[in-house]
Amino acid sequence: MRNGRRSWLLAFSAFFLVFGAWCFAAPFDGPADEVQHTIRAAGVASFDPGQIFAAPAVVPDAFEKPGMGAYQRVPEGMQAHAVCFGFKPQVSAACAAGLRGGPIGEVPTSAGRYNPLYYFAVGVPLRLLPNWGGLVVARLISSAICAALLASAFVSLLRWSRYGLTAAALLGVATPMLAHLAGGVNPNSVEIAAGIAFFAAGIPLLLEPPDLVAKRPLVTLLGISSVLLLTLRSAGPAWFAFAFFALAVPVRWGWLREYWRLLRVKLWTAGVVLAAVLSAAWIVGMKTGELVPPPPGLYEFKTGEAIAIYINSWWIYLEGMIGVAGWFDVLLWSPFYLVWALIVGGLVVLGGMFGDWTMRWRYLVILLGGVALPGFLQVTQANMTGFIINGRYMLPLLAGLPLLAAWTLERRLFDAAQARTVARTMTIFLLPVHLVLLVWAMVRWQRGLPTNAGVGWFNPLKGDWHPPTGSVTPLLIMVVGLLFVAAVFWRVPHDEFVTPLGRGEAPALEPAGKSVTENPDVPSQRETGTDTWRESRTPGEDSPKKAR
């Protein structure tokens, strides 16, 4: 337990530093939709029911185009959209007024219909201090929530990985895009972190035999992440449904009956069901799915054309999952995306090749939810919304693929040495991309990013705009954070967490695919007939009668 807390604190500190660097780097409304979310957060933080349940209304967006949203009574200076440099990568942020206060008024926001849960957490500093200080505190709160979820995911996967590769796969799903969003005010960041935590808890909980003592923390993490997925955004219930279906089917009724003996399972099941009901009521009552029809003739896509555009846009969606900062106007050079896609995508492909048909079924369900469903919605609504799908929206669900792949590969293909090599390869090649995206974004905000910018242009200490806390601060925080992350992941698997089996003892580690003959309690996968390498005991055997 002591080692688990230590590993959690180390992982939390590492992720919090990486995310926190963005909190000090970006101008107000530099991250996507930040003005909309800060207005909503400040309104919710008034704790006025009329603001929390603001009446849906047609409101203007940053460019005065009508859309669905609501009005919030907040300082009027918060409506400071960065339109002077948004979508204009060659223009610095020096033209923008930044976050400021002013008299309380009715301020429109397209996020006015969003569930208030996230905004309760980040809204108070924005309500009390509508300035740079309040903005940074709100961003840091959002970063801390994301870091806590990822640290919990890390400890869970480290505790139940065979060789630690599944824990190391967090490096592939905690992308620079997540870090950028976590360093701003945007519930999409917590949604992505919750999706990662859901799979980190669900994989060892639902794909391996029950342990009513050692797996109690997994129940809690699965419950927390489920509630967050269901409530943060209107797409969350779909992500939850597909993720749960992928892990729970085929159903192991004996395992479920044993888990049901835990009071903790019963309480969290009730909590998740309640969250689902409240989320559905919010979506219906606040009309979160309602759209404002565009002017006639604005979009005129034929169905076949819309399908072709969606399919042909998948490299753009991959870029959006890996890292596109600002108003989607800060793109890295192509090799950075290619390296990330090859390493993480290669892991997913190998997992599909060496997994069994049950694993491929899980892949299929996740792909249906993360690819086919957004495609159907985008194609059918193309003439209403245009093409608005972005890769970051799909990440809460698609993040499960690399984690499932790593879980499979360390049982069927890699031995301990090979798993460590893969983990260190990800550490060496993926972590620097975080720093590169931060530098690219800082240069873009501070001095603009012309299309013909040469290598010498990428100096994050120059420009006519700098964060009030200075440009050195975020760079130092990011470098220290990445070194910290590297130190945490370089020694995966941590010695104190190698292959616990629920009985408190770990067998001698054999290459994946071989039975652990030294320990008769751990039959091979072929002998058990399941898609797990552990069958530590028959459900119900030696289980504590009063487990909680």
UniProtKB/TrEMBL annotation:
Q: Where are the bilayer-spanning segments?
A: 136-158, 165-183, 189-207, 219-247, 267-286, 334-354, 361-379, 391-409, 421-443, 471-490
Taxonomically, the superkingdom here is Bacteria
> Compositionally biased, Basic and acidic residues: which spans?
528-548
Q: Where is the signal peptide?
A: 1-25
Residues covered by region (Disordered): 504-548
Keyword terms of this UniProt record: Membrane, Signal, Transmembrane, Transmembrane helix
Name of the featured protein: DUF2142 domain-containing protein
